[in-house]
Amino acid sequence: MQAASRESYKAGAERLDAYVRGTDAVSAAQTANDLLAVAGLLRREPRLRRALSDPARSGADRAELLGGMLRGKIGDGALDLLAALVSGRWSAPSELLDGVERLGVEAALASTEASGDLGEVEDELFRFGQVVAGQPELSAVLSNPAVPVDRRGVLVGELLSGKAHLATVRLIEVALAGFGGRSFSGSLTRLVELAAERRDRQVAYVTVAAPLSDEEERRLGVSLAAIYGREVSVKQTVDPHVLGGVSVRVGSDLYDGTVLRRLNETRNALAKR
Q: Are strands 246-250 and 201-208 parallel, antiparallel or unpaired?
């Protein structure tokens, strides 16, 4: 987002924080669903996006336009949050869409935080991404933009029925639509990171040849927390191809101590002789 859009989103996010402090998990979840439904509407209706972000209209006019369309169709909490967003300045209509969608995601995460399920939802999102990555046919279907989002959503619902939180399923549906313009896998990754951020944690993606024990994972988390100055959420990927050792990625930092890397370095050094 450009500067003006960031400021407008920040105002909406602050309004959301105040809202969730005064409501319960169920109400927050409904507000999240309302916000995400409106994001879907904006995605389908480019003319509406342009009207609600038109700098030639005053913020009050844009909020009134929104209210006239949605009052009585979504909850008051969602309507108030949306009014705060559209009243601000947006650098592009697409950035308003991104802002509404992001606020809906944050509301969904806040609802799971209020119910004590945020950590589990974070893990479920990551594990689902791992399952999809390990099944090329499933990945191809879920990542295919030519297949309508609702059809892919039905498949996700069938796969996760009774196995995941409703919030997890709803957030995966957001990923199917391409959260913030990302790919499906990129969307899932970003959602995992936003869940971790809400718990004030950094995400460490760890690749190993065999699963770490609980104690090994704990020690690694403690070591990384000492480096980054905050708690770390360790996400393991098992890949026998690395042969041994550990590769750790935190943000843009990569610590690759795998046997495969050392073999490749040796091979490259011999090739240069």
A: antiparallel
Question: What pairs with residue 30 in β-bridges?
Answer: none
Residue range 114-133: mean pLDDT, rounded: 94
The vertex-92 CA angle with 90 and 98, nearest 5°, equals: 80
Which pair of structure tokens corresponds to residue 260? 């495969």
CB burial of residue 129 (10 Å; 0-12, 13-18, 19+): buried
Give 77-91 pLDDT, tens digit per residue. Answer: 999 999 999 999 999
9-17 long-range contacts, CB within 8 A, separation 24+: 9/85, 9/88, 9/99, 9/102, 9/103, 11/84, 11/85, 11/88, 12/81, 12/84, 12/85, 12/88, 12/99, 12/103, 13/103, 13/106, 15/80, 15/81, 15/84, 16/81, 16/103, 16/106, 16/107, 16/110
- Spatial separation of the C-alpha atoms in residues 209 and 26, rounded to whole Å: 41
Question: What is the pTM for the complete model shown?
Answer: 0.87
**Start-to-end CA span in the chain (Å):** 49
Residue 233: strand, helix, or coil: strand
